[in-house]
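Worked example 4.2. Below are the chains of a multi-component assembly; read each line carefully before continuing.
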Amino acid sequence: MNRTLNPRAALTPSLIIIVCFLTVCPVVMLIFGSFSEGLGAFGSFTLDKYTQAYTDPAFAGIIVNTAIFTIGSAFVATGLALFLAYLNTRTNIPFKSLFRILSIIPMMIPHILFSVSWVLLLNPSNGMINLFLQKIFSLEGSPFNIYTLQGMILVEGLLDLPIAYLILAPAMASFDVSFEESSKVCGASNLRTLTKVTLPVLRPAILASFILVIVRSLASFAVPSVIGMPGRIYVLSTHIYRIIATGFAADYGMAAAVGMSALAASITLIYLYRYLTSESEKYVTISSRGYKPSVVDLKNAKYPLFGIVGILSFVLIVMPVLVLLYISLVPYTMVPSAKAFSMMSWKHWVEVISDPISLLSLRNSVFLGIVGASLGVTLSVFVAYVIVKIRTRASGFLESLSFLSFSFPGIVVGVGFMWFFVKTPLYATIWALLIGYIATYLPYGIRPLTSAFVQIHSHLEESSRVCGGGILYTLRRIIIPLLIPGVVSGWILMATMFVRELTLSVVLSRPGTEVLAVQIFRFAEDGLWGQLSALGIMMIFISTTLVVIASLIGARLTKVETVSQ
Amino acid sequence: MGISIKGLNKDYFSEGKRIRALADVDLTIPANQIFTLLGPSGCGKTTLLRCIVGLETPDSGEIAIGEETVWSKEKGIFVPPEKRGLNMVFQTYAIWPHMNVFDNVAYPLQTRKESKEDITRKVKKTLRFVQLEGFENRPATKLSGGQQQRVALARALVAEPKVILFDEPLSNLDAKLREETRKELRDFLTELKITAVYVTHDRVEALALSDSIAVMKDGHIMEIGTPKKIYFNSDHRFVADFIGRANLIEGKVRVVEDSYAIIDSSIGAITCPRSPDTSPGNTVSVCIRPEFIKVMEKDTRESRNIFRGRVDSLVFVGEVYEGEIIIADTHLFIRIEPTLTIRAGEEITLFLDPDHCFVLSK
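Applying the procedure described above to all two chains together yields the following structure tokens:
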């Protein structure tokens, strides 16, 4: 008699336990931590930390700053994204392929480097644009100061533009043109149609993008730390950082207490976002008949508008890299000139390569990128499999659980993990960072894999079972080969995220476990712009190399599978 | 190898509602037959098939393939699909897009770790059998629908399973190809002497392919029988109606004479063969298929089952006219030869062949 335990049944609970550990554990520890006296006195209940955190007279100012910063960024990002999405999907603007690049590439540039490049251009003491304008117009002071709320909003808005674009462009492209056509038939002009019909119909998508940008900027640490802190403008994330990283004693209890409000705000917003996206699916329907959206002829405005897009692409993609490359080569910040070019040298690069901590951070980040992404993707494969293929209530729970970390601000998760790791031998090891990374960025691995699993019809898997392949054999011969494209993009996303990770790392990284972004952040704090730029370029190079290698391996594996006999 | 199913139950929960996919199904599928599960969508036929193959677990009951119990709630037995020794052809064919034809067909042998020579030999033989010789190295996705269907069949046959299951394998083919493939499939299966369980909602397919048909509705098996029994002499009103166009007339048995019963109905007295249900006084349904209703000359010599009716509508559909006739407020559906010249609104004489008027028992 054949008695077999169904291994499928065991898969879901074990994954729930793993993911629960990764996502719920830091939150639980955060809650406990916020009621504890300090890292050493875990468990002794106290409300002191809350009183201390929320009666701080500076706290109200921080909340106001945070609100202005996040909402401002949401306006900048969503506004620009709407403009670009409309131009791309609904007009006859030339070079449309540029838009795709524009929406993907900025994600490849680490936020900290992007922020730094803006500091290098617009800081009041020696920002290159400021120096240049002072020289030309013989001004007394600097015309621009990046170290302001406006500066933060501008940079954060540009950084979040891709995410807003990725929400708005599909909504705009798939929306039923008959709404617009009927408006035009009624005699409305293009502009009137846009404002009275197109935008209102897209309202849920616009709101969704708006909210997502708020969540992202609430979690953002790069911009508030590199641009806000020098100007003494604190938002929630930098406030938490200040509590644990400066002063005489790091107060993880108070950090946890402050973190609770950031966490609560984030979770609320994500719920709102989910609600809106389910609403927007009701609104914006893709009709099954193949139609082509009518294209608005831009006539004379075509090239001027394209010029704006061109400038945006330059600012988003080319400029940060150029600025860093230039600064890494000149001895100190100066406006590009013949003199500057004559003084160029590899000095900063040599300094970085001979700096043991920079080298260690390089090694750690490469390790975390490769090993972390590989482990993360492996876990994502199983989770995505359960979410898509085993549709039970438990798998639905697993799905919510694994996307939970999407709404957690990195620095808050970091504080939560700190409370956890300090009790374990993992504390101050690279494995602490690895676990934290995977927990925080799990959705990035799961997303591409769930879409890959959705494309694999369940019959493909079932027929393998019926043909005599066990669950593991089926996984190896059918599911994994078909998943390789999804695996590759999940791996690329995770690896690039890990190589540049800053927010979580500033909390968890300890002497010996420095990583690239933290080292860059230290350089920024010390104003060592030349070395920072050299290390930053190396960071971009490493990310790009990992992406190229992963794509090549992916292409190779898929090819082997089709030719093999 | 036969299959025996006892007391199988399976419920689904959909949008908070409980749906009975299988309700106490008892069924014995004899060995080496083509056995069809026929029914409208949502009747539980595919669920039953998937329970047999092991892709779904019933809530209670027992399934045995041959002598081996492969599922039993009570005894705690669950043999996973890969160990049940059967194979299946899926509605979508489930051809693996990342493999060529050879690898697709060789897969069941590879799972059993057979030697390379054996695999090559068996795959070649099977591909010849399904007339796909020389297609080994083609990418499986580059084949036509009919060819993919045959790859799926070859894959199901190659390991010589005890039982082969078909889940609407022809429904993705176009009408002409479907007819050809149906004939081929019948030939293949008869030649192989294999137990085949075939799921379809297409009554013509069921009638043409099967040795036995089980008609299902709402998780119940309504009736099991040979195609002829199901078509000409079904017991259930639902089955009679589902298996082909049927005119169902309510009536009351007046008298039984020799081998015939006479039934009073809204259109008049109908003579039909006697059956266990035709005791005088019983309320019954009489079923007559459109093809057994004939248009007669007014002064026909036939004395039984002659009715006068008015042509309500007449539609030319190619090989026949499909017409609706009204006799005393009752609508009858008929098929008449296109050569007859009648028009809508005319009064005509109809003859209901008494040997093909059958009484439904349920």
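Take a moment to check your reading of the output against the notes. Helices of chain B lie at 45-53, 101-111, 116-129, 145-157, 175-192, 203-209, 227-232, 237-243. Residues 175-192 of chain B form the longest helix (18 residues).
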